[in-house]
Write a structure and sequence with these properties.
The strands form five sheets. A seven-stranded antiparallel β-sheet has the order 9-16-10-13-14-15-17, with no helix packed on it. The chain is mainly β. Strand 14 and strand 15 form a beta hairpin. The chain folds into two domains: 168 residues, Roll (SH3 type barrels), CATH 2.30.30; 53 residues, Ribosomal protein L2, domain 3 (Irregular), CATH 4.10.950.10. The protein is built from one helix and 17 strands. The longest helix is centred in the C-terminal third of the chain and has 6 residues.
């Protein structure tokens, strides 16, 4: 078992004004289970993170770096000249007392935020906006990052962590660098108790069920699935099937599809 690295964290108690209640659903919708094997887990409060990052020519100072139980990256508590505080996703290498600038064109420094059309080619970016003004949507998890490939006309071309190459509006904003805590991907949970704390219940194999409960069920001993393809409990093919709509509006913006793993 390995535990997260908290060396970057400088403050343990969160900012009260930036907390919101986080209610558990028990993975149920209108009383019926909508996602299997979910429930329980430790109580958490949601940290209100500013994904748009105080746009319109402002700068803020980093007061502290904190742990967020709702995401893999660390978050930074920032304060502006007017005294207003907000949380942002902390980039790798950010330190307390650093200044973060958000302008149409800001200095090329980790954590600074600017429009995609002004970012040099080859720069690593995160918290990328798909629609200008709506806040960052892409590359927000620990250790991820997009790469700036080109900026021409109305659009900028970026490479996503999945391997997908797509165009996004150059007027949208993105932050320089990559989210903190990149070693998150090497964590070993180690025991079932930690998984229960995360709100995940034991996952039962389909082959251990009866035929009435799962397409893989039944048979004597450890039987193979007996089907041409692995199936979901509802009889649909589980692996290697593309579920993206063929006429989705954003298809024209995708230059290269993501790399799929089987």
């Amino acid at each position: 078992m390995t535990k997260p690295d908290f060396t970057m964290v400088t403050k343990t108690k969160p900012e009260k004004k930036l907390l919101a209640p986080l209610h558990k659903t028990g993975a149920r919708s209108k009383g019926k289970i909508s996602v299997r094997f979910r429930g329980g887990g430790v109580k958490r409060k949601y940290r209100i993170v500013d994904f748009a990052q105080f746009r319109h020519d402002t700068s803020k100072k980093v007061l502290a770096i904190e742990y967020d139980p709702n995401r893999s990256a660390r978050i930074a508590l920032t304060e502006g000249a007017n005294g207003k505080r907000s949380y942002i996703i902390a980039p790798q290498g950010l330190r307390v007392k650093d200044e973060i600038v958000c302008k149409d064109q800001s200095p090329l420094k980790e954590g600074n935020r600017m429009q995609l059309k002004n970012i040099p080619v080859g720069t690593l970016i995160y918290n990328v906006e798909l629609q200008p003004g709506k806040g960052g949507k892409l590359a927000r998890a620990a250790g991820t990052g997009c790469k700036m490939l080109a900026a021409e006309g109305k659009y900028a071309t970026i490479s996503l962590p999945s391997g997908e190459v797509r165009r996004v509006l150059g007027a949208g904003y993105a932050s320089i660098g990559s989210p903190s805590n990149p070693q998150h991907r090497f964590e070993v949970i180690g025991k079932a108790g930690r998984v229960r704390h995360m709100g995940r219940r034991p996952h039962v194999r389909g082959s251990a069920m009866n035929p009435v409960d799962h397409p893989h069920g039944g048979g004597e001993g450890r039987s193979p699935i007996g089907l041409k393809y692995p199936k979901t409990p509802w009889g649909k093919i589980a692996y290697g099937v593309r579920t993206r709509r063929k006429k989705k509006y954003s298809n024209k913006l995708i230059l290269q599809r993501r790399k799929t793993k089987r």
